[in-house]
Amino acid sequence: MKTERGGKNILLAHGSGGRLTQELIGSVFRRTLSNSILDKMDDSAVVQLDGNLAFTIDSHVVSPLFFPGGDIGRLSLTGTVNDLAMAGAEPLYICAAFVIEEGFPLDDLERIVSSLGLAAGEAGVEVVAGDTKVVERGAADGMFITTSGIGLIPASVHISASAARPGDAVIVSGTIGDHGIAILSKRQGMDFQTEIKSDCAPLGGLVASMLDASRRVRTLRDPTRGGLAATLNEIAAASGVAIEVDESSIPYRSEVRAACELLGLDPLVLANEGKLVAFVARRDADKVLGAMREHAYGAGAVIIGEVQESEKPRVYLRTLLGSRRILSMPTGEQLPRIC
Amino acid sequence: MPLTYLDEFRSAPHVQRLLDELNERRGAELKIMEVCGTHTMAISRYGIRQAAPRGITLISGPGCPVCVTANADIDRFIEIAMLPGVIATSFGDMLRVPGTRMGLAEARSRGADVRIVYSPLDALKMARDNPSKHVVFFGVGFETTAPTVAATLLEAHEQGINNFFVQSVHKLVPPALEALCSMPDLDIDAFLCPGHVSAIIGPQAYKPVAEEFGIPCVVAGFEPVDVLQSLIMLAAQVDEGRSEVELQYSRGVRPDGNPQAMALLHSVFEPADAEWRGLGIIPGSGLTIGDRFSSHDASVRFQVDVSYSHEPRGCICGEILTGVHTPRQCKMFRKVCTPDHPLGPCMVSSEGTCAAYYQYED
Fold first, then answer.
1. CA dist list (Å): B262 to B174, B254, B294, B344
2. Is the pLDDT of residue A7 over 90?
3. Could you give the residue ranges of the DSSP H alpha helices within chain B?
4. What is the predicted pLDDT for the residue at B267?
5. Which of A19, A192, A220, B342 is the most exposed place for a label (fewest CB within 10 A)?
6. Of A192, A257, A320, the CB nearest to B15
7. CA A279 distance to own-chain centroid
């Protein structure tokens, strides 16, 4: 960090494994994230689980570290929780590794860890192990966080990107593009009059209520990097089907649409951090939609399209003019470091 | 930010009514060329080509400034970018465009300091903040972008920021249209003229095209309603044997354009012959930096050798830019040439014809 503040900063010695490391762990991490497993402070967290395990990992390098609607702490927790949830798992335990740049303000670290802890509480998971490394100034941009997590998949649940079938309804859980625009507006110092907040949220609860409502939820994905366009193309390819989406049914916040118009961006390739796409057997679609809408993070859920039989995996968009155009996989550099 | 204005121009009932009107037309077959990359994208993205009646074919012309930039000009900028002490700045669109040996993205990975800017003023700020570096801006664009670059050069000059340079490959649309009209094998009945460019130069700039070459022109906006309405206006001109310049995009374009912006442009730049990909050298179709500002002219300051430059082999960008071929007629399209491995600029520019077909059309 180039700017010094009045408060204390992280020193290289905080990552040395010595006294300062212990102090940091005690005063920041354990104080905020305390639970019976973490508090044992053994080299490994020991947990008991029985059944189909989901196991995932995700690194977070977002810039800026604090953005409207979240920060790297909340993001790094929800990112991994959502990856577990998209497998139909109940997220349970999280490990978090922090790579911190020398000189990073201690206050900011406390804010980030506290935000991560709050998100863990909301998601119903425990942070059971962690690691802290400090690197020289310039060797990292403030802070990077890697989280890994495990969850338990109920025996009756078989969710996969390859499970979409012709006739399935395609549901999104709410407005698209919020996270991408929140980051962009903050980074470019753009003012859209109303603040556009990231949708960053843990989706385990939403998924649980969807799975309670129907056993015919076939595919779940959170459209993060590459946005809805990438997610739909991945599913079309994995399932060997065509997906047709009605352009006018895709929900956007009006501020996000306005910002996209202004900046010449396609909201369909913008990242989301608290939304999911679900493929559900047609006959259960309304039931699942109803369950989603009762949940805070699914209140804006709508059906946006359907799966069709096709020789070539393709995603089509039905336009305003009634024509059908392809929605292709985004290519090239999207906005970097959004998550 | 209110969006009602936009929604009206994308309203499904309006669109349907215009489509019905277009479908009722019983005139001869029509080939209409759009000469603006934003139109190219809008036509593909809204599926206007598919929705238009059978007798109306929409063809893309040289409307994407990145695409018409000759490889020698791209290579020159990359060579400058590779020089020590240079910060090369460009709009993001240019980053992935392939040059003869490499593109800017690859130059960056080889150590060149290439930075994306959203405005030439950002590049000027960079020059102010980095006095020990040479900051070079790649001035690519039509009459729409040139005034902003002119204003930036003026500011650099007035403030004595001597480490700011522009490589100007700016181009003018009307001379290119006239050159296109003079091509013996041109098979176009009407031009859908650019909205943004016309907001600067004014619709009357197309008068020679309409009057001397007898090709109807309509200056069009970018929403589905705009494009459909403009197609109806062009069809009417052809069917009634007229060839005039008409203005559909009256909410964005004033009849006299933007005289202040034009004055600014002419105070800094001078017309010069320029090489266009696909069209060759067109007299008076480019803008070079005038003598008063030559100390900021990158092509004066940095001498680099680009004698190796040549157009990409196997790529028919040139024929696509002149409407002779469509992307689907290119053997490389979608097979060898994709946005991730582009042979020519039309596949990577956000306004390129091949990019539009690849992204939106099956």
1. 14, 13, 20, 31
2. no
3. 4-9, 12-23, 37-45, 48-51, 65-68, 71-82, 104-109, 120-129, 146-158, 173-181, 195-201, 207-211, 224-239, 259-268, 298-301, 317-321, 353-360
4. 97
5. A19
6. A320
7. 18
CATH assignment of the domain containing A51: 3.30.1330.10
The confidence score (pLDDT) of residue A264 equals: 78
What CATH topology corresponds to B1-358?
Answer: Rossmann fold (3.40.50)
Question: B102-107 — which CB contacts under 8 Å span 24+ positions?
Answer: B102/B78, B103/B74, B103/B78, B104/B77, B104/B78, B105/A333, B107/B78, B107/B81, B107/B82
Range of the domain at A140: 12-153
B362 contacts A326? CB cut-off 8 A: yes
Residue B276 forms beta bridges with which residues?
Answer: B69, B280
Q: How many CB atoms lie within 10 A of CB B20?
A: 9
Based on the structure, what is the number of domains in chain A? 2
How far, in Å, CA of B327 to CA of B225, rounded?
26
Residue B173 · residue B67 · CB < 8 Å: no
| pLDDT at res. A3 | 42
Phi, psi dihedral angles at B295 (to 5 degrees) = -70, -15
Say whether both A79 and A188 belong to one domain.
no
Tell me: do A311 and A205 sit in the same domain: yes
Residues A231-256, mean pLDDT to the nearest whole number: 96
Query: Does A131 have pLDDT greater than 70?
Result: yes
Amino acid at B150: A
Residue type for B141, please? G
Q: What pTM value is reported for the model? A: 0.84
Interchain contact B45–A (C-beta under 8 A): yes
Going across the sheet that includes A314-318, the strands are A217-221, A277-280, A169-172, A302-308, A242-246, A314-318, A324-326
pLDDT digits (tens, 9 = 90+) for A65-88: 999 999 999 999 999 999 999 999
**B361 contacts A326? CB cut-off 8 A:** yes
User: Can you tell me the distance from the alpha carbon of A125 to that of B239, in angstroms, rounded to the nearest whole number?
Assistant: 70
Q: How far is A323 from chain B (nearest CA, A)?
A: 5
pLDDT category at A333 given cuts 50, 70, 90 is low
ipTM entry: 0.74
The CATH number for A275's domain is 3.90.650.10
Contacts of A133 (CB under 8 A, 6+ apart): A15, A97, A98, A99, A100
> Rounded to whole angstroms, what are the CA distances from A120 to A75, A81, A198?
11, 9, 18
**Closest Cα in chain B to A255:** B1
Pairwise CA distance, residues B127 & B87, whole Å: 9
Name the residue ranges covered by the structural domains of chain B: 1-358
Model confidence at A185, in pLDDT bands (50, 70, 90)?
Answer: confident
Distance CA B135, CA B113 (A): 10
A-to-B residue pairs, Cβ atoms closer than 8 angstroms: 71
